[in-house]
């Protein structure tokens, strides 16, 4: 029988800015009509060492990389995750009995493509879980996406299970938007069950903005959106991009650096330069920020409203943002300006007692607990899987 456990959830996302550890208590559902309960004790973030971050980015965007480099990076990340969990446990004065570790995505292909004569989807997260299990002497649930892909899903998004457990409402339709490297949302109609969830990746979150900042300003990100605030959105570029295949494709869908990495950034900057005369660097950053905002608003208009339309007129619609992008004031202002005319209220995850940076780590704590107890963690309505499945692989400490 499932029991209450203290679980450490570990997340390192496509922004590659570091490792987030959330230590939570996860408890069984009270009855058949409820869901598991999650209580956050605390959250601690750790930055990647500069050389490690560079190695991860290189691995993600490389057309070719040696097996030796990938193997070494896998084991080095295992040590970094173990360090981050130990740091969190020390700072919070808690000891986890179980770890859920997402790992670092180095490749994700959610759409079917033919390879060696066979159509397939694939995903790969690295960070050796055996290292974490040995260091902490507790079981580690890792590699959580492949089981969903094997069941015909896209392996993403996996956060909707947490969204449903923590944020569903009888009176309010909620859209939970994460602003990490990639943007993803979960739409939960008021009074809706788990089968009524819609969830998908909206496109780039911080990824294109950050990459443009590195190229044009040699900075890792646009702090507070200060650079974008001084620029002008280049006319026509965002509209042209929103007409391309990924943005117009129906959910379920997922994306990553394969769609919006360095190759896309080169094309994006060229589009900005060619669209108008005297385009300044700050105009490129403003346009990248507008692409993130507009893709989210467009996703709501194009897909989400249709999905929640029957419930939305009878209930409030709240758009709840989380992730590192919430610190970008210019991006949040653009989102607010795009959503409010639609009658949608923009809120921050922090208002619900969940730090914006902690949400995905909390999600992987919940998923680890579900897997440890033999319970499904994916939401087929979100990923497109044929059935609900138990996620992950276990390394015993």
User: What's the structural domain tally?
Assistant: 2
CATH class of the largest domain: Alpha Beta
CATH architecture of the largest domain: 2-Layer Sandwich
Radius of gyration in whole Å, from Cα? Answer: 20 Å
| Overall number of strands | 13
Distance between the termini: 21 Å
Instruction: Give a quick account of the main beta sheet: strands, pairing sense, barrel closure.
Output: 6 strands, mixed
* Helix content estimate: 40-55%
Structural class: alpha/beta
Overall average pLDDT? 94
The topology string of helices and strands comes to EEEHHEEEHEHHEEEHHHHHHHEHEHHE
CATH names the topology of the largest domain as: Nucleotidyltransferase, domain 5
Q: Approximately how much beta-strand content do the residues carry? A: 15-25%
Which of globular, elongated, flat, extended, rod-shaped describes the shape?
globular
CATH H-level homologous superfamily name of the largest domain: ATPase, nucleotide binding domain
> What count of helical segments does DSSP give?
15
Please give the order of strands in the largest beta sheet: 3-2-1-4-7-13
Low-confidence parts, pLDDT < 50 over ≥5 residues? none
What does this structure look like?
Helix content is 40%, strand content 23%. The protein is built from 15 helices and 13 strands. It is an alpha/beta fold. It folds into two domains: 5-158 and 358-395, 2-Layer Sandwich (Nucleotidyltransferase, domain 5); 160-352, Nucleotidyltransferase, domain 5 (2-Layer Sandwich), CATH 3.30.420.
């Amino acid at each position: 029988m499932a029991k209450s456990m203290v679980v450490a959830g570990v997340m390192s996302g496509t922004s590659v800015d570091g490792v987030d550890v959330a230590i939570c208590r996860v408890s069984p559902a009270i009855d058949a009509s409820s869901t598991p309960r999650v209580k956050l004790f605390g959250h601690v973030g750790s930055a990647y060492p500069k050389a490690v971050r560079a190695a991860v980015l290189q691995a993600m965007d490389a057309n070719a990389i040696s097996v030796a480099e990938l193997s070494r990076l896998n084991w080095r990340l295992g040590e970094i995750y173990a360090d981050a969990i130990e740091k969190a446990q020390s700072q919070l004065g808690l000891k986890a009995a179980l770890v859920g570790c997402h790992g670092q995505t180095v490749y994700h292909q959610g759409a079917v493509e033919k390879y060696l004569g066979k159509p397939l989807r694939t995903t790969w997260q690295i960070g050796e879980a055996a290292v974490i299990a040995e260091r902490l002497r507790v079981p580690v649930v890792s590699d959580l996406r492949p089981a969903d892909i094997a069941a015909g899903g896209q392996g993403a998004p996996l956060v909707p299970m947490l969204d449903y457990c923590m944020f569903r409402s009888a009176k309010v339709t909620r859209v939970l938007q994460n602003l990490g490297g990639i943007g993803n949302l979960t739409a939960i109609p008021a009074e809706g069950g788990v089968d009524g969830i819609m969830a998908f990746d909206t496109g780039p979150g911080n990824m294109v903005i950050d990459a443009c900042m590195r190229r044009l300003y040699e900075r890792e990100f646009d702090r507070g959106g200060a650079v974008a605030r001084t620029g002008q959105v280049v006319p026509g570029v965002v509209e042209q991009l929103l007409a391309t295949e990924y943005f117009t494709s129906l959910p379920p869908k997922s994306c990553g650096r394969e769609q919006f990495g360095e190759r896309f950034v080169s094309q994006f900057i060229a589009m900005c330069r060619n669209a108008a005369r005297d385009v300044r660097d700050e105009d490129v950053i403003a346009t990248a920020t507008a692409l993130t905002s507009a893709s989210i608003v467009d996703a709501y208009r194009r897909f989400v409203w249709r999905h929640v339309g029957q419930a939305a007129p009878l209930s409030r619609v709240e758009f709840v943002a989380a992730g590192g992008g919430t610190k970008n004031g210019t991006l949040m202002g653009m989102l607010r300006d795009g959503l409010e005319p639609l009658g949608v209220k923009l809120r921050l995850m922090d208002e619900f007692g969940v730090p914006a940076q902690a949400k995905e780590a909390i999600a992987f704590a919940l998923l680890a607990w579900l897997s440890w107890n033999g319970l499904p963690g994916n939401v087929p309505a979100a990923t497109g899987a044929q059935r609900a499945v138990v996620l992950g692989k276990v390394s015993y400490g």
